[in-house]
Fold:
Amino acid sequence: MNLNTLHAQGRAALHRHWHASPAQRLWHAWRDELLGLLPERWRQRLTGRMPLQVLHWPLDEPADPTPARVLVLPRSEVLVQTLTLPLAAARDLQNVLGFELDKYTPYRADQVSFCAQVLGQGGSTLKVRLVVILRQRLEQILAECAGFTLLGVDVRDGERLGVNLLPEALRPKRERGGRLNRGLLLACAGLLLTLMVLWLQSRDALLIEMQAQVRQQQAQIGQLQQVRDTLANTQGAAHYLIARKAAQPALASLIADLSHCLPDGTWLEQLEVDDGGQVTLAGQSTQASALIGQLKQCHSLDDPQFQGVIQPDGETGKDRFSLRAHLHQEASHASSAE
Structure:
């Protein structure tokens, strides 16, 4: 068995599965309903075939010259049985019934033509309708219909069963699907492509919007960080100034302390206190040389030293001096309390 034979058998099995499936009947019902909404000319152009003519056996009247025909047999010409099979039989229903045909009918598979129609399934079982006709009888019927081409042989049991007993070899070769299937396939591909493009555009628009929101939030975060940095710097500077101010004695406390430390006959012409806590004193005194010793007793000042030399003042008769000292940091609380 070569590869081409295996390929042909696979295609035939797939074709049988499709024609036995409920999806195939649903597809044809939906397609026929859509085609019924169109004018006759459009239906013919889309399907690529002329209107279907149904012939009932036995033939009572000459058939119209229509190329597409289906022959419908009465129920008395065939054997119809409803079977319950395992669900696994649906994979190759035609071959399964061919091997076990003598189990359900009094004939062998080579004596009849048969077809199977899936009616439904429940759990692990499959409900199947088996339609059988003697091959010899079918050949006689087809011989009387030799003047025209048949698309299929159906059975009427009150209504048409929707089966085809016509052997595969006698079915006319025609392009499967026709123009309608190709058109539907192209339409589905176009709709799918349009859907993908719209989806991508929606994703791009959403991405652009999200990126804009992220940039806006980043700008707001940057502004908030600047405000936080400014506030932290301001708070740091305020805390520094408060700490420096708390560590240094008040100017009124310094002046009161100096008024006790400086001896009589001394007055100040200049008193400066810079941010570093350095105090500069300048003035005149009758006891300028003893000022260092006097200032060392002052609790507000540390390390007093002369700047320059002591010079006498001819007008006042006193000595002019200039001193430099440092504020005593630990004395701030005591001076303030005093």
Observations:
- The chain has ten helices and twelve strands.
- Residues 185-247 form one domain.
